[in-house]
Design a protein that fits this description.
Helix content is 41%, strand content 13%. By secondary structure, the protein is an alpha/beta fold. It is globular. The N and C termini lie far apart (35 Å).
Length: 170
């Protein structure tokens, strides 16, 4: 299943790839991705919402947005080359990639490991997006519970990574 995850400033680096779709997440005040250099035909799908897990936040992802995301996924195939991006390539894009993989039948643990392999140990999928998708996909809370558990379990690994990047740990 060919996919990539990145932050918005990294999008132009993927211009040489024959992408089928770009799934773009941004906040209201942020610009969309620069795709002027892309030569291959692709479909850009844009979502505008804040990176928050608080469903009460009026700028948060909504069930309607995730329903739209899943309808896009229903039109994709596992062999489609998809680029997921958000501001930093950490939360919304990794949640979207995780949901896409699960939608196409990849078990939760394998899907999570794939997004870590593609993007890095610092991924922290947006819990609210996963929660909405869980309900809409009929997973009865199991997918959301997995994500909560896995995100918590991997917290020390993420902390070590960021400490190394900051020069705090060797």
């Amino acid at each position: 299943m060919p996919f990539s995850i990145c932050g918005v400033t990294e999008v132009p680096a993927f211009a040489h790839l024959p992408l089928d779709h770009i799934i773009s997440f941004r906040e209201v005040h942020q610009p969309g991705p620069d795709i002027r250099g892309f030569k291959h035909p692709l479909t850009l799908h844009s979502f505008v919402f804040a990176d928050t897990g608080d469903a009460a936040n009026p700028l948060a992802a909504t069930e309607v947005m995730i329903r739209r995301l899943l309808s896009i996924y229903a039109q994709t195939r596992p062999d489609h080359n998809i680029l997921f991006h958000c501001f930093a390539g950490v939360s919304r894009s990794s949640a979207a990639a995780f949901i896409w993989l699960v939608h196409h039948g990849v078990p939760y643990g394998d899907a999570y490991q794939l997004i870590v392999n593609v993007r890095g140990p610092f991924v922290c999928p947006n819990q609210l997006m996963v929660k909405w998708a869980d309900g809409l996909m009929g997973h009865k809370g199991v997918m959301a519970a997995f994500m909560t558990s896995e995100t918590g379990r991997r917290a020390p690994e993420r902390d070590r990574y960021f400490n190394r990047v900051r020069g705090i740990e060797p």
